[in-house]
Amino acid sequence: MRDASRLARSGAGALALAVALGLAAPLGAQPPADHKAQTDRQSQAIAVSTDPLHEAERSVVRVVTISLDAVGQPVSLETGSGFAVAPGLVVTNRHMVVGAPQAVEIETFIIPERDAGGQAQRALVKQTWVDADLALLAAPGVASPPMVIAEAQPGKEATVRALGYPGVTDEVRKLPLTEILRPQEPYVTPGSIALFSAVAPGGARIDTIFHTAPINPGNSGGPLIDACGRVIGVNTWGAGEQMGDDGQMTTPQGQFIATQASVLARFLTDADVKASFGAGPCVPASVQVLQDRLKSDETAIAGEKDQLTRVETELQGAEVKERQTSVALSIVAAGLGALIVALIALRLRPRRRRGGAASTPVAPAPTPTPNADAASVETVS
Description:
The protein has helices spanning 9-24, 32-47, 52-59, 167-173, 177-181, 261-270, 285-348, 372-380, and strands at residues 5-6, 60-68, 74-86, 89-92, 105-112, 121-129, 134-138, 148-150, 159-164, 187-197, 208-211, 223-225, 231-238, 242-243, 249-250, 256-260, 276-278.
């Protein structure tokens, strides 16, 4: 946000002294227990490295800018947020590093996220863009992993998260200055995209995103990420209290604004930064798991279909063979039947005599019958 988180002047000197001491021994000597805890956290970070939100958190840093007067006394201290875009390079808001108007010297430091490892590092401003309110810092000693910048803009109502170090969170927890200087995990607020605008607050022609993920002073320069953990914007503005025509003060709700990733990409290209860009729409890890499982299931189903097709083909072949066998058996049976009939017919056919003549039955000669007339004649004579 335009108003960076400012610590009380009474604490600025103590914080500046702590930072100065940190240059010789980073933020003072950490007790062994803290070192072991940090090692344990790094091991846990490796174990959950597949979580896009956790990966994004490790890339976020706290930015501390101290304004010094002519005699080297701190006159102002501001804290904000930033994120790594390449090894040893951090992006934040320009207004986070300009210092107080009366400053003669400005010192900027980077404090990494606790799971990223390392301590406070001095940073140098390499390049700025006034209209887009962007600044590129060089901090070679920072080991924060670079974030991926989304090339595809998400749709409206897409889930987004703002990451950073709002000062009010430190105040609510009443953290001492030395604790603020130590690596902390960033504050995360969820929301959705409300509006894409080609005009930034103040009228500059800068592509911006209006979203509903709450940000406060101290979130300045922190990333706005999508569900895949990719940068889609740089949180820069938030509507504060306004006085109406009637003299009444109003506090707008839900007016949180980030510079779009496309603007950040142009800025990094101009600065010749080899950043990582992610093409295509965001596919959350949970959805990707379901898609992979669906593809696996589809592959298994396709395999089962192929197996079923092969079985059906084999069954059809078996049926054809069975029909062919049945027809062949029928033909064989018919042939055998005809052969049997022929054999029977031959068996019943009359036999021929030897010599070749056919035997003809001869009727017996008739027995002679005495002639009645002759008898009678003989009697008369």
